[in-house]
Amino acid sequence: MTTGMNSEAAEYQRLRNADIEHYIHPNTRLKTHKETGPTIWVKGQGSKLQDVTGRWYIDGMACLWNVNVGHGQRELADAATKQMAELEYASTFSGFGNRPAIELSERLSALTPGRLTAAMFGSSGSEMNDTAFKFARYYWLCRGKPTKTAIISRFRAFHGVTMGAMSATGLPVYWDMFGPRAPDFHHIDPPYPYRQTADDPAMTAEALEQKILELGPDNVAAFIGEPVIGGGGILVPPDGYWQNVRRICDKYDVLLIADEIINGFGRTGQWFGINNWDVKPDIMVMAKGITSGYLPLSACMVTDEVLEGLQSRPEDPPFMHGHTYAGHPTACAVALANLDFMEREGIVERSRKMGEYIQAKIKPLNDLPIVGNTRGLGCMAGIELVRNKDTKEGFPANWKVGPRVVGLVQDKGVILRSMLGDIVAMSPPLVVTEQEVDEIVDALGSSIEEVSRELATQVPA
Ligand SMILES: Cc1ncc(COP(=O)(O)O)c(C=O)c1O
User: Fold this and answer.
1) Is the pLDDT of residue 3 over 70?
2) For a surface tag, which of 212, 262, 295, 410 has the fewest beta carbons within 10 Å of its beta carbon?
């Protein structure tokens, strides 16, 4: 007779073999994956994920920074079931509408800062960043300024992987395999408080003004930035940075696009990251937390002023942009249920308070010999590992110090992620408990200690 344990192991083997043979994983070392194989998730509850062998892990990343209300919230699943039974999908091209998409755009208009008033929907963040660039260029065309096409973004920024979004992304590792990039995307340095002084042009946003002047204001359509850079290393800008960006954009007629794909929906302790600085963007892009990941959905919102511009052109041809799943009724119904849940349960306020707990909890990690800096805002945190704490010199990339730490953390039953420059990221579901945060930080601290002991005795080959 097969025991429960054996059948789980057999099921793992079956799926593992099929995975290696048939399935291409995103952002994965495809060659090594053939040896290591997948971790296969089968269930989620709150801040926890269970793999096919029955082991539970704490999901310290909310998967990809997106499962904000936690796994297994029944009412989001019920909203999908109900909508699917009524109207699973309908096109929104050529003026067709559906109730959830209309209600969601109205609701987002009330929730977002300033005069953001109208939304276009898609399925992924990358699609909607591309949409934001197209809106910006089309807006200037409509306003009689067709030369304003340049898009400025920042190094270390991640804005997605479609051709436009990839070209705005400021991490060369995303470019090198797929060049050439789309033309007319330009990069400036981001504020990086651990490595820059307060008067650095990157910290004051002067770098943006210099770039606009270099390109010529008549050629610049928009600046895009995440209020707090996520995938590029959890970079929290100094106070005043975003206000300066807004001022510079206004001065040179450049649209300000906030990429709220990670920051939005409570991650930083506010509904939107930009609210931390009370700045009002012209275009805002959101995804991930909009449905807490329960279904793919993204949105690009524009102000009434931008909308007016887009609506001002002669009718033919029509606005030639949009995706098949724009305004997908079931995805929008889930987003509405997600917002209901977040508002009723006070998830944003909870994130703010839990964020304070997380930031205080990671501070003592600074005492470890290879931790250079801990930082973050709300429920997003970064722990930067360095070879020399005095000079802030990092480790050689091929030592893979961050990935090694994250591997040990996973062995202890916690999922975290290592980013460029050996920065370990933490971004749990916003329903995470203090006890779970303690477990995450304990696993991280002991893993960093193990790796620093290893490094003290043996330099990696
Ligand atoms: C800030 C930011 N922008 C854009 C994207 C791209 O979103 P997607 O993967 O849904 O295309 C991501 C994804 O992680 C992101 O973190």
Assistant:
1) no
2) 410
Ligand 1 pocket, CB under 6 A: 64, 124-126, 129, 158-160, 226, 230-231, 259, 261-262, 287
pLDDT of residue 89: 98
Per-residue pLDDT band for 316 (boundaries 50, 70, 90) equals confident
252 alpha carbon, distance to own chain's centre: 28
Residue 403 is predicted with a pLDDT of: 97
Q: Which residue has the tokens 């504020």?
A: 191
Q: Are 365 and 445 in contact (CB under 8 A)?
A: yes
3-state SS, residue 73:
coil
Model confidence at 1, in pLDDT bands (50, 70, 90)?
very low
Q: Which atom of ligand 1 is nearest to the CA of 157?
A: 1
Q: Which of 259, 13, 294, 265 is nearest to 158 (CA)?
A: 259
Helix (H, G, I), strand (E, B) or coil at 268: coil
Cα 159 to middle of ligand 1, angstroms: 5
On average, the pLDDT of the chain sits at: 96
Structural tokens at position 164: 């436009």
Tell me the average pLDDT across 19-29: 94
Amino acid found at 294: Y
Q: Distance, CA 292 to ligand 1 centroid (Å)?
A: 14
- Output b/e per residue, 397-422; b: 16+ Cβ within 10 A: eebebbbbbbebbbeeebbbbbbbbb
Distance (Å) from CA 217 to ligand 1 centroid: 28
